Prior knowledge:
about 25% strand, 3 helices, two-stranded antiparallel sheet, alpha+beta
Amino acid sequence: xxxxxYFVIPYVDEVAxxxxxxxxxxxxxxxxxxxxxxAVLVMNAVAYINLxxxxxxxxxxxxxxxxxxNLVQTSxxxxxxxxxxxxxxxxxx
Length: 93
């Protein structure tokens, strides 16, 4: 519910989804990434998620954890793909 005074009638009003607003730790599976100098690295990652608008996470997309996982994998490949091998091994951010 939005802020303000609302009346919830039992057995008439239902909770559509229960979703946590705590921090969620999402393990990103290992994947092969090619650097700028054509070296192949096997990388994995951990994503910390904090939902600020849960209604968009529930109604805006079918599976928000799957979408975030794919977004992190794509971003990781893009960022490491622009690095040399030495830069990728020395930078963990």
